[in-house]
């Protein structure tokens, strides 16, 4: 059992408020990702959980016990840092078992724990090597192994893949997801890379300027962002935003005037909207479609051919719009093209950047959340938990 509850956790450095009253619950065996731009407070929040920073105010509770005054070594947590922080003069086996040696664990037991962690991480052939003889991905696995041998209640990861090249990052994402499944552990992971967040998390916590913007499953945030910031941050390539004007609103949605004169009705709640009110239309590049009869028009500035897909960067007035098309699209740079979208794929944001509530819930966002909840409930009911 390993749950975490944060209640009004705040952090101030002199006159600078870095965290502004964070409330959050992390469930047992959940993989939670803190994501946000540089300076949003995600690493500071992780360090406060680990005990490496103290909270200015608020409570940190692990498995029902308040741990604000408990030292880092006694919290039962293990942290994997961005830098591998391995001892260069020690072998892989000695690096992984060093914390156990400091804790007074016997040599035989220490070796058993290290060998088991090495098996899980596929490091068994490397135990006699020193860090200089390892690749970046292997060094990161050793750092993770050093955390595993401690059998922590919660694993904490602070941007562990940022020093790896693109291919290794993909490989390590797969390995971390497999590791979470095999260890059945609670994990909290910090990254600025929303692709890492989308591919690994059960639950994403989006932070901005020291505040939580939204918490939810990856697909819930993708299909139902709470505001313009979350909509623009989650998804790659990022969402397009177009200025539009509300022309009418009823129980079926809000009709908007598009740039260029076309109109579309978006199925969102529009209570209180008046005609002529300025809004922003959000539409993801993968939801735009080339259409000779489409209501929008742009000139191709750049084509990026990626094989199965082609990214078109279209100039619309002063805006650059991204459209994901089939890889075999025959258009060329400087072509003038028309395009459109399905209204149910679009989002509307008011003048304050808040999303107007959709009249429909995407079925996949419900299924993902239900699957996560059922997995957590089923794991709690396993026989070994009652042993």
Automatic annotation (TrEMBL):
A molecular-function term among this protein's GO annotations: ATP binding
Region (Disordered) location: 367-387
Any coiled-coil regions, as ranges: none
SUPFAM superfamilies: MOP-like (SSF50331), P-loop containing nucleoside triphosphate hydrolases (SSF52540)
ABC transporter domain segment(s): 4-234
Residue ranges with Basic and acidic residues bias: 368-387
Keyword Cell membrane: yes
GO cellular component: a single term: ATP-binding cassette (ABC) transporter complex, substrate-binding subunit-containing
Record's keyword terms, sorted: ATP-binding, Cell inner membrane, Cell membrane, Membrane, Nucleotide-binding, Sugar transport, Transport
Superkingdom of origin organism: Bacteria
Keyword Membrane: yes
SMART domains, per database record: AAA
Protein name as catalogued: Multiple sugar transport system ATP-binding protein
